[in-house]
Amino acid sequence: MKLIAYKVVCYSAIVFFMACGKSGSDPAPAPVVPKQVSVKTILLNTDPMDDLEYGVTTKPSITIRFSEPVKPATVAAAVTLTSASGGSAPVFTTSLQNQDSVLVVQTTSDLSALNQYVFSIGNELKSASGGNFISTVNKRFITRIDSSSKFPAISDDELLTLVQRQTFKYFWDFGHPVSGLVRERNNSGDVVTSGGSGFGVMALVTAVERNFITRAQGLERLKTMVTFLKEKAQKFHGAFPHWLNGATGAAVAFSQKDNGADLVETSFLVMGLITARQYFDDAGAEETTLRNDINTICNGVEWNWFRKNNEEVLYWHWSSTYNWDMNMPIRGWNECLITYVLAASSATNAVPASVYTQGWASAGGNGFTNGNTYLGVKLPLGPAYGGPLFFSHYSFMGINPTGLTDTYTNYMTQNTAHAQINYNYCVANPKGQYGYSDMIWGLTASDIPGGYTASSPTNDVGVIAPTAALASFPYTPDQSMKALKFFYYILGDKLWKDYGFVDAFSLKELWFADSYIAIDQGPIIVMIENYRTGLLWDMFTSAPEVKAGMKKLGFTAPYL
Question: What is the location of CATH 2.60.40.1220 in the chain?
Fold first, then answer.
């Protein structure tokens, strides 16, 4: 028995030591490798989130689904939501779901309407196992328009008067203190514009008629302008430069070779002066002198000389240093009809009708006549889709298109078709520009982010200019009123300022101009007045020389 017990003890000891020896020889377990984490999907509210989203609710939520669970302690430092357009920083909460593989970001208070925000996730985020975040999240969104009214409701008639009065302040406040001529834009210092001053004269006539200023105030400002133009402003064969120094009268170069006469800008100026001459018709000495001085200026323009050696076309520019180097014949269809009407109307330097037919209208199917249908509207004249809307505004601030016809078209039909095509294009919005609608429309020349361009359906950069729709009131009154109400009541906190509507805006870029430009502000006042009363049309076309010149060119109208 003792021998058996001894054997058992020895055997157990051997087993024990053998077991211990085996355990000590096993390899260490492999270390856990951290798994990288990436984004699988991002939803803005309930829809997939693109890099730039428009029209987002002001209390959005963002849901991110990751490839791996994330480490909760790293979320706060990694997730940011900031305002790119200024204003207070958004307040938001974060929460993890689905075993920390889904992150929900929820704003806790309303974001600002029509504001841009940036949502980002940085590389501070880690997976639950400590792996790196290998996706890039940097997404922008723009909140929707606040549809509440920014101003108390007034009647349509009161609104039109308000727009005219407020816009007129541009011409009154930015008239140069020496010359009275109108500054090119609100920050142009001594640089004044000849064409914009012509528009300003027509705005001044409107302001007197509507009692924004007294007749005496209007007369005094006009006397200052006309005296400066007659005695001090630099002229080239009677024509004015595009820009002048409002203190000295010296030409200011518009471009290197455009440092002399600009016949088109001169025609806008003369159109305004003739309109004022017809309006200020009192027999007293002051208004009689004003009319005589205007006649001196207008009769001094050597329209016929701008044919460049009697060619059958007018030329836009001439410079005493560069002569005819710019070489730009004035051919239609564009904003320059008024230039030919005034050239044919001159009492001293008139051009023959052949210059109109062989020069202005000579492009034929290559740019003058059209006849094609765009967006359901037939366009008699001009380029495809009509071009920028100022083609139907500038000349027709004075020329009344109502019942006006010649060999080529009925001009109210032409201008209405042009405006309707522009409107239809913005409603159809083939390029998907954010914000375009039956209330946000109007493509014409204006400032754009970082520059200036002549917007049109064939040059659409996503910028709307209020002058386009508002100066089209005589052609598209219902569509223009709809745009006006939206610009004023809904976008008024962005667009409506001390001098009326700012020059232009882009909801696509969330950009609002801080500029006003004379040649954009003027048509708003003048064309609204023509729509309401026909005042400027009646004044300009009452001029005997204008009637004679238009008849000579083959125009017919009830007023001729």
Answer: 39-143
Q: Are strands 92-97 and 251-252 parallel, antiparallel or unpaired?
A: unpaired
Beta strands in 451-518 (DSSP E): 451-454, 496-497, 500-501, 505-506, 511-512
* pTM of the full structure: 0.92
> Residue 25: what pLDDT?
58
* R_g over Cα of the chain: 35
Q: For residue range 137-169, what is the model confidence (pLDDT) as tens digits?
A: 999 999 999 999 999 999 999 999 999 999 999
Tens of pLDDT along 321-343? 999 999 999 999 999 999 999 99
- Please give the angle made by the CA atoms of 508, 85 and 426, to the nearest 5 degrees: 15
Question: Which residues lie below 8 Å from residue 421, measured CB to CB, with a gap of 6+?
Answer: 374, 375, 377, 379, 385, 386, 457
Q: Where in the chain is the domain with CATH 1.50.10.140?
A: 156-552
For position 366, what pLDDT does the model report? 56
Q: Which amino acid appears at position 230 of this protein? A: K
Q: Are 412 and 381 in contact (CB under 8 A)?
A: no
pLDDT at 32 over 90: no
Domain spanning 156-552: CATH superfamily: Glycoside hydrolase 144 (GH144) (1.50.10.140)
Residue 26 pLDDT exceeds 70: no
What would the 3-class secondary structure string for 190-239 be?
Answer: CEEEHHHHHHHHHHHHHHHHCCCCCHHHHHHHHHHHHHHHHHCCCCECCE
Q: Is the CATH code 3.40.50.2000 the one for domain 39-143?
A: no
